[in-house]
Specification:
Layout: H1 2-35, E1 42-49, E2 52-59, E3 66-75, E4 78-89, E5 95-100, E6 108-115, E7 122-125, E8 130-131, H2 143-185, H3 187-199, H4 204-235
Antiparallel strand pairs: 1-2, 2-5, 3-4, 3-6, 6-7, 6-8
Length: 236
């Protein structure tokens, strides 16, 4: 009877220990599962670092599993280019990594996380994809286009002044040239008159012609009287 009673007590004790062991195992498994790396512990956000754009990824993994994070720019639902890859070890408070990226407004990025050996812990994309804000980090100021317009406005102002300064110069040159031409043309008739005088077309030409005519008349008269005298001598 004593042996039977001992065996029953031992069986009950074993059962109690077994249940406790199973409960502890379940609790430990739940704790391990709670500490396991999960894609839900990762988040991504597009921010501005001054006038430069950045993409910040946060890892709130209490198990501190090492993860490789890759960021890709999307275009029409496909990867257009890879922004970069960085390694992170999470923490309960959250560990952040920053990708330098001059993102454009309303751009879409795919963020992929790979944790554990060959990605057995996590090998997924952060859902939904990251969409950047509608406003860029660096806003274009109106001063940039104003500079060329100011330059253009200055150059026409200089051109009229130069043309105005050039106009009096040309007019002055014309005015000085015109009198010179007049003076040069004035002596021309005088030179012509002097030439005519030298060739006998001046006022002395009439006097010389008169003397010549007189000589002709005198010579004719002498010839006439000479012939008449000869006729008288022959009649005698």
């Amino acid at each position: 009877m004593a042996i039977l009673s001992i065996s029953r007590r031992t069986a009950r004790t074993v059962r109690i220990l077994g249940v406790a062991s199973v409960s502890a195992a379940l609790a430990l498994g739940a704790a391990v599962d709670a500490l396991a790396c999960d894609i839900k512990e990762f988040s991504a956000e597009a921010k501005c670092d001054g006038e430069k754009g950045v993409i910040v990824v946060t890892d709130k993994d209490p198990s501190r599993a090492e993860a490789l994070v890759s960021v890709f720019l999307q275009n029409n639902g496909a990867d257009a280019r890879e922004v970069g890859e960085l390694t992170v070890k999470g923490s309960r408070e959250g560990t952040t990594i920053t990708f330098a990226e001059d993102w454009q407004p309303n751009a879409i990025y795919r963020v992929h996380v790979k944790a554990g050996k060959n990605g057995e812990l996590v090998n997924e994309d952060i859902e939904p994809y990251l969409t950047t804000p509608s406003t860029a980090c660096k806003t274009q100021t109106p001063s940039t286009p104003a500079t060329p317009s100011a330059t253009e406005s200055e150059s026409p102002s200089e051109s009229p002044s130069e043309s105005e300064s050039a106009a009096p110069t040309s007019s002055a040159s014309e005015s000085t040239t015109a009198p010179a031409g007049t003076e040069n043309n004035a002596p021309s008739p005088a030179v012509g008159d002097s030439n005519l005088a030298e060739t006998g077309a001046g006022s002395n030409t009439g006097v010389i012609a008169g003397i010549a005519a007189t000589l002709v008349v005198v010579g004719g008269g002498a010839v006439f009287f000479g012939m008449r005298r000869r006729g008288a001598n022959s009649n005698r």
